[in-house]
Design a protein that fits this description.
- This protein folds into two domains: 107 residues, no CATH class; 91 residues, Immunoglobulin-like, CATH 2.60.40.2550.
- It is built from one helix and 14 strands; from the N terminus they run E-E-E-E-E-E-E-H-E-E-E-E-E-E-E.
- It has a four-stranded antiparallel sheet with strand order 4-5-1-7, with no helix packed on it. Strands 11-10-13-14 form a four-stranded antiparallel sheet.
Length: 201
């Protein structure tokens, strides 16, 4: 992804967006179904360089991000038509650029999720269970970890927050009052998102 960062307002500047939409064109989730980034000299996770001399504005820096693997868990929408829409925008005046290269594939991402989760020692046990789960994850200390549980219709059924300590942390999740079935825990640690599938039976 490459975005030139001129001295524009956020509305005017180049940007890149990803929207995950259902068959009606509605964003499937207000948190996990939207990604938006607007050109700036101080974008977290981006590199900054000067543009080629021949561009329209050779004085505004360019923010760029190398190839990055991103996993979107669409398992709650099995059997539905889902659209993932990628859009790049030049600035509204047409003089500053934004572009991105995308390589997509669809399939079983369990292995990728497992790698990400293992890096942070994320697991839920016992799984399956009668509704009482323990969520285990690694923390750096003093960060706020948020966890949200969704049913198969992507409806939020449980949520909580925990101030972590350095090392292994545990959170209790009680779904005993809910119907048996498959649920998804989405965990936010700092700015990173993870997911863990659990089964109540």
């Amino acid at each position: 992804m490459v975005l030139q960062a001129p001295d524009h307002t956020p509305f005017e500047a180049p940007k890149f967006t990803i929207y995950v939409l259902d068959a009606a064109g509605v964003v499937v989730d207000p948190v996990y179904g939207i990604y938006e980034v607007t050109a700036s000299d101080a974008l977290s996770g981006f590199n900054t360089s000067t543009p080629d001399p021949g561009v329209y504005d050779p004085y505004s820096n360019v923010a760029w991000k190398d190839w990055t693997t991103v996993v979107i868990d669409l398992s709650p929408y099995i059997g539905q038509n889902i659209t993932v829409r990628f859009t790049t925008y030049d600035c509204t005046f047409g003089g500053h650029f934004g572009y991105a290269y995308i390589a997509c594939s669809c399939g079983n991402t369990t292995s990728i999720n497992e790698i990400n989760n293992k890096e942070n020692n994320i697991t839920a046990f016992p799984n399956p269970s009668n509704g009482n789960f323990t969520l285990q994850f690694a923390g750096n200390g003093n960060e706020i970890t948020e966890f949200t549980v969704f049913n198969i219709l992507n409806k939020e059924v449980y949520s909580g927050k925990l101030k972590t300590t350095a090392g292994t942390n545990h959170a209790h999740i009680d779904l005993s009052g809910l119907s048996d079935g498959v649920y998804m825990i989405r965990i936010k640690i700092d700015e990173n998102l993870y997911s863990e599938k659990i089964i109540k039976q």
